[in-house]
Specification:
Layout: E1 4-8, H1 14-22, E2 34-38, H2 39-45, H3 47-55, E3 60-66, H4 70-82, E4 87-91, H5 95-106, E5 115-119, H6 127-132, H7 140-153, E6 158-160, H8 163-173, E7 178-181, H9 200-205, E8 210-213, H10 215-218, H11 223-234
Parallel strand pairs: 1-2, 1-8, 2-3, 3-4, 4-5, 5-6, 6-7, 7-8
Helix pairs in contact: 4-5, 7-8
Bound molecules: cytidine-5'-monophosphate.
């Protein structure tokens, strides 16, 4: 299974996104990074931004975190699959019925489909909110693992998780169940608002399959060099 670096393109507009991606063209013509498009950019620009970036030769993780009744998610996934993205996601909290419906919607007539991964508990949810608002009595790690198990048993390919969770998720659910991990920072960089970070090299050691890296690349003075450094540390 190929490890890869996914750049989180958290830009507010098509112009800013394409301006950023153009830095990888020209002298670096062979570099076509895997990119993540999130809600901000997708809601601002619509499906055309996906088509445009795909046409430029990038793989795309469309991070829209679907969570609705199974039938609605199935229909929405059918639309996303026709956009020819490479990876999409849902909230595991939508239940196994919803995750199975998502898979059905994603699967194209020829049997191919984008990878489908699940969000377990958002890393912005702390134990207090878990217990007092969501009324879940279990520990966060138990909850994350149980949601990840539901995702695997529903046929999903993996989960989005902290690199600090990648090891125990692989141990419990197998090496082939993908871990896609944000919260990555260079050893000599700043952490921004991320609390529990890991370097690309350490993420590789603990078994992350894909690292999702935003600001350390998008805000770097030399984004292409920062991307190459991630690849050197995580993939090579
Ligand atoms: O700029 P930075 O590297 O922190 O970006 C990380 C990306 O991963 C952002 O798009 C953020 O929304 C996303 N993400 C995250 N933590 C999660 C899930 C997604 O940082 N638990």
């Amino acid at each position: 299974m190929g490890k890869d670096v996914i750049i989180a393109c958290d830009f507010p507009s098509k112009e800013k996104t394409l301006e950023f991606l153009s830095k990888f063209e020209g002298a670096h013509a062979s570099v076509k990074p895997f990119v993540k498009i999130g809600m901000e950019l997708f809601y601002a620009e619509g499906p055309d931004i996906v088509r445009e970036i795909k046409a430029r030769g990038h793989k795309i993780f469309l991070d829209l975190k679907l969570h609705d009744i199974p039938n609605t998610v199935k229909s929405a996934m059918k639309v996303l699959s026709s956009l020819d993205v490479d990876m999409v996601n849902v909230h595991a909290a939508g239940t196994s019925a919803m995750m199975k419906a998502a898979l059905e919607g994603l699967t194209r007539p020829d049997g191919t489909r984008p990878k489908l991964i699940a969000v377990t508990q958002l890393t912005s949810t702390d134990d207090k909110a878990l217990h007092e608002e969501l009324l879940i009595d279990r520990l966060m790690t138990e909850t994350v693992l149980s949601y990840a198990e539901n995702a695997r048993d529903s046929g999903l390919d993996g989960v989005v998780c902290s690199p600090h969770e990648a090891g125990f998720i692989h141990k419990a659910l197998g090496a082939n169940f993908l871990t896609v991990t944000p919260g990555v920072r260079f050893a000599d960089g700043n952490n921004d608002d991320q609390k529990r970070v890991m370097t690309p090299a350490h993420a590789k050691e603990v078994g992350s399959d894909y690292i999702v890296v935003g600001r350390p690349i998008t805000q770097a003075s030399e984004p292409v060099e920062a991307y190459r450094r991630c690849v050197r540390e995580f993939v090579d």
